[in-house]
Amino acid sequence: MNDMEIGADCGVAGVRRGRKLATGRVAAFLFRAGLLIAGFACGVGAPMGAKAQTVKPHMSYGTAFAVTEDGDLVTNEHVVSGCTSVDAQLGPNQLSGEVSIRDQTNDLAIVRLRQKSPHFAVLRSLPELRAGDSVITYGFPLPGMLALEGNLAIGYVSALRGALDNPNYIQITTPIQPGSSGGALLDTSGHVIGVVAKRLNPGNSFQTAGEMPQLANFAVGLDMLRHFLNKNKIPLTERDSKQELRPADVGDQARLFSYSIRCVPNDAVFMTAVPAEIPNGTKPAAGVAYERAVLFEEDPANAWGRSFAGSVTWRVETLPPEAGRSPEMRLLGDIRIPGHVHAVLTIGRNSGADGQTNHRFEITFDTTESPHGDIVSAPGILMKLSERAQGIPIMVRTTPTRPGSFVLSGIEGHNQQNLKLLKERAWFDLPIVYRDGRRAIVALAKGTSGLRAFNEALID
């Protein structure tokens, strides 16, 4: 079998020399697998032979904003409830942080990033807020379904107190969706006047003559936010709001200090499903961080395809030094989709003829339990921002080495591009083809444990 390349001219995954991995119905399936068309990748159930993990509290998503250059982010306590570690994303950059301060009573928390924050928010000093003032929110609602770069919304201050006349909140008309919580509420000068916190749930609220409450949303007020930061000795910057900016200009500022964050509770080391028993008959190791993995398979009877949940564990392995060389680190991902696929992905380094270091990927599949036979092709690797985003190919050449095993070598001249994708993107897509011709994608999350392992193994 000839070597193949996957490159930037591929749609989802393709083979150079003008060949495509999939067309027509199959291409539609792969497109959906990479992009999340509603109903396909949402709500993936536990596969046969797997034990669904029930976790309380569940994994949560939200928004946060920087208030210091040292990497202090403000968010809601309910967004990070049960977590000590948090994944954060600013533009294409994947970051990690620790929950350092919690205030459950007032629903505020501080996440301390391991990196500095070159841009941070400024709090409003004067004038006093009034009902009727314009407000702007910037956050990351409905992650995976709406724009990855964030959403801006405009509204007004409805009241200077919250539900049940709570003085620590203000009421706003700005639309709020799941994932908006923790974002900055801004005035028309781009200064913070609150923290987006909650919306009135129509299903649980009082109704009059069948009417549902609308645009009744709430933010933690500026006085409470200021008190929280001062009490916990978090330095803050305040300015008077004198200049009125266009909403688009406020959004441009907010984009620089607003983060999408993900919290996986400490007791939720299994993201979706945990193998009750892995193929060699052993039990999952206690304390191992199992990140999310999903197998998306083409199904001739269903244009949407089928999906099966599993797990991936990441670890760094240090190889003994060779003569005249330093010890080499490589990254290993142990992938298990119970009843379907067990695979090991190894990421190491190669020195190219151009003297630059590129990356080498080796993946070995065990499909003993798969009804579709061996895997005969693994044409490339794509990196994406989320499970439901479209992937961007890493520039590699694929060489089969033995049945079910493939080496994907980085193409010379593309090492920096490949490294950037590996560092910045949170998910892998591994397109595969079974012996019976059926096509599939194995999607892997870095998660908190993988992010740490990648930073350790892939830093140049």
Q: Summary?
A:
With 460 residues, the chain is mainly beta.
Can you tell me about this structure?
The structure is a single chain. The two termini are 34 Å apart. The protein is built from 5 helices and 31 strands. The model is unreliable at 1-58, 203-209 and 267-287 (pLDDT under 50). The chain has helices at 24-35, 222-231, 247-257, 415-424, 447-458; strands spanning 4-6, 14-15, 19-20, 50-52, 60-66, 72-75, 85-90, 93-103, 108-113, 123-124, 134-139, 151-159, 169-172, 184-186, 192-199, 217-221, 238-239, 258-263, 273-275, 291-299, 302-319, 328-337, 341-351, 357-366, 375-377, 382-384, 392-393, 396-402, 405-410, 427-434, 439-445. It has 2 domains: 4-55 and 269-458, no CATH class; 60-263, Thrombin, subunit H. The strands form 6 sheets. Strands 1, 20, 21, 22, 23, 24, 25, 26, 27, 28, 29, 30 and 31 form a 13-stranded antiparallel beta sheet that branches. A 6-stranded antiparallel beta barrel has the order 5-6-9-8-7-18. It has 460 residues and is mainly beta. It is elongated and about 70 Å long. The protein is 12% helix and 40% strand. The longest helix has 12 residues, at 24-35.
Fold blueprint:
Blueprint (H helix, E strand, L loop, with lengths): L3 E3 L7 E2 L3 E2 L3 H12 L14 E3 L7 E7 L5 E4 L9 E6 L2 E11 L4 E6 L9 E2 L9 E6 L11 E9 L9 E4 L11 E3 L5 E8 L17 E5 H10 L6 E2 L7 H11 E6 L9 E3 L15 E9 L2 E18 L8 E10 L3 E11 L5 E10 L8 E3 L4 E3 L7 E2 L2 E7 L2 E6 L4 H10 L2 E8 L4 E7 L1 H12 L2
Parallel strand pairs: 10-17
Antiparallel strand pairs: 1-28, 2-3, 4-19, 5-6, 5-18, 6-9, 7-8, 7-18, 8-9, 11-12, 11-14, 12-13, 13-16, 14-15, 15-16, 20-21, 20-31, 21-22, 22-23, 23-24, 24-29, 25-30, 26-27, 26-30, 28-29, 30-31
